[in-house]
Structure formats: C-alpha cells, structure tokens
Amino acid sequence: MSAVVNVIGAGLAGCEAAWILAQNGIGVRLFEMKPERFTPAHKYKGFAELVCSNSLKAARLESAAGLLKYEMEMLGSLTVPCAKENSVEAGGALAVDRERFSDAVTEKITSHPLIEVVPGEVTELPEGTVIIATGPLTAGKMADIIRELCGDGLSFYDAAAPIVTAESLDREKVFYASRYDRGDADYINCPMNKEEYLAFHSELIAAERVQLKDFETHPFSVYEGCMPIEELARRGVDTMRFGPMKPVGIDDPKTGRRPYALVQLRRENREGTLFNLVGFQTNLKFGEQKRVFSMIPGLENAEFMRFGVMHRNTFINSPELLNSDFSMRQHPDIFFSGQMTGVEGYMESAASGLLAGIAAARRIRGLEPLMLPRDTMTGALSAYVSDPFNSGKFQPMGANMGILPDIGVRIKDKKERYGAYAERAVSSLKRELERIGYGEDNC
Fold this sequence. Notes:
This protein is an alpha/beta fold. It is built from 12 helices and 16 strands.
C-alpha cells in the first residue's frame, strides 16, 4: 500500500503501533531519538526499554494484568510474545530479562521490510497520519508540539527501585518463597521482626532525599503504584506493612510463623544474578539508600548495581482530547499512545499503542472500526481515558477488575469472580473480532 504512517517514539507503545501497521501492509516511518539522545531515565540503546521494573505483572488469566496481556495477544501484539520468549522466573508474574526483551523487539521492528527507522529528534510534526508515542519524559521541541496540540499537561513523578547482586546477600537470613506458594519459589524474602522494622522505619523517614528541581515541585504528586517507599513510610508507621512490606502469605521457615514485616526481592535477569527490591522505588540520595536499605536483614553487605532514581513524567488530559481509539477529537489524523495518555503500566502503554495502530490501519484500509466491548480490559481502559466524565478529575489508571462493568452475579470467591470477568471478556472480544473478520486479512 502507498499509505505511510509516522510513529514518533520506539518505546513499548510506538513499537506496538508500528508493528501492527506494518503487519497490515502499511508503511511506517518510526522516529526514535536514541542513541543520539537519551532521556534521564533511559540508558539502553534498544527499543521498548523497561525503566522502573522488569515485571509485566501477573500472568494468570483471572487477573487484570493477565487478562490484558491475553487480549493483546488476541489482537496481534508484538511485545507480549517477546516478553514470554525472554521471561525470567518470578512466581505468578511475567518478568523479563530487560536487555534480551528489548533486543527481541528491536530485531522484529528493524527487520520488518515496511518499517523505516528514522534516527534523531523530531522537531516538527510530520504530515499525514501520526501516532505520538514519545513517552512521559518528552521534552524539547516535541514537548512544545504536544503543548500546542493539547494545551498545558499535568506532571507527576515516577521512581525506580534499586537492584542488588544475588551473591552479595546473606543466605543465612533470607529465603526463597512466593506469596501463598503461587508458582515456583522465585522471590528472595527478607523477614523482619518488630524491633528491626521500627528501627528501619525510623531511619527511612529521616533519611535525606534528592532535592527536586524547580520544575518538579509544583505539585508534588506520584502514581500510587509507584509511590516512593519513604513517602509511603511517612503516611504512618504501619503503612508499609500493608503495602510492599506486607508479610501475609509467607511463613519464615526458621520460625514457622509469619514475620512482622517482609521485604521481597524479584529476579531482574534470566541468570538470577540481579534482584530488585519490590516496591522500593525511592528518591533517597544514593548514600542514604546504601545506609538505610542495608538495615534490611540479609542486605547488610548488599552490592547495589543500580540505586533508585526519581524522574519527571507528563500526561495529557485525555478525556478532553482523545476518542476511544486514541485519535484526537480536534485532529483525527493524530493519535496519542503510551503512558502519556494516562494508562498506567508497561503493558497498558503497549496496549494503547496496539489499539492506536489498529485504528489507524483500519481507517486507512477503509475497514469498519474495531469496537472494543466495554467488558474487555482493553475496552475498559480505552473508555476510561476517553470518557469526558473523567476530564475534571483525570488521573492515570492501570488495568484492574474495578474498571470492568459488574458481572451481575454475586460470586463470593475472589478468584472465581475474577475468572468469570476474564471469561466474559475473552468471549466478548472473540465475538467482536469474528464479527469484523479480524485476523482473516491481518486486522
């Protein structure tokens, strides 16, 4: 086909959009500023780089994250199969070796005959159909372009957790186990008694933080899902014990009892040589991270391969600006995708790129639009970011069962209830795909 779509940004969303377009015989110019320039959070040369965590959340279908990934595969996702092929053990979660995952996505994109990768920063909006997937750290000329299109955006803050080497941990104090014995015992667990926990909490809330830059202080707000651990600790002495340090579902094999608090470490790479501190995103100074986190039993002599960092993110007021297919109401040939749209999470961002690409492809090919059922996870997310009702109070949202319509039947058991939601969603999406002949000739 002679049509060409311009995709700006080769993150998860941009790669999904480019891939589905190319799979439909549509030429793609994929603009990516790496390796000429990196954002403050990105370090790796490859596409679809994961920054905060290497986990893509739960894998089981009867979970919101698992359902989202399942639906994405039904729609022709690139990133979900690449993630499965480069996964590392993480209990019931789908976690990946970051570099191998990025390399796999990059190879697929760069080897596709209909995708032209254009290196360098974009300083003006290309003509024709455009999908903007530049990410929440967009700056420079591209930020000016978006501001002109959308008006003032909102700022929030995201934090990345530290990574330590497995060999530097005290194996006499830690143990392997997964919560509720789900999957294999892939997490390293650091149990705390009450005295240890209270001492840790005291030092954590008193530790020195990195001074925020002027543009990062108005207002100071974060995604609840990426709350810096020190901010969480300031909310109350027991707050962490009901969050990332909750001890439920795990017994200490040395005592046979549930510990007072628990820190979990998740495998960071396939080889199991690196582990990240689950839920320990932070804005503490590096020296303070070493001092305070070394108070965790088993981490006294931990070797930190990467300290936690905090960086600025931006998202647009999507309910005012976007249709449910992620196209702009005032500029129908311009689509947004990725975390900038207010979808929270790696796979949510990827899904938005996939949906934007499908919408653009079907429009160019003169095909009937894909009408995602509201009771699917992809449909619920796209409805959330495009619903004008959310405009005055819009905050980012990740996949969760709460955004799906009520199933209409009272099911007390949570697992069974979520399973029913998932079964309904898969059936609804299958019917819609069959109705429009999706997959018979690409999308």
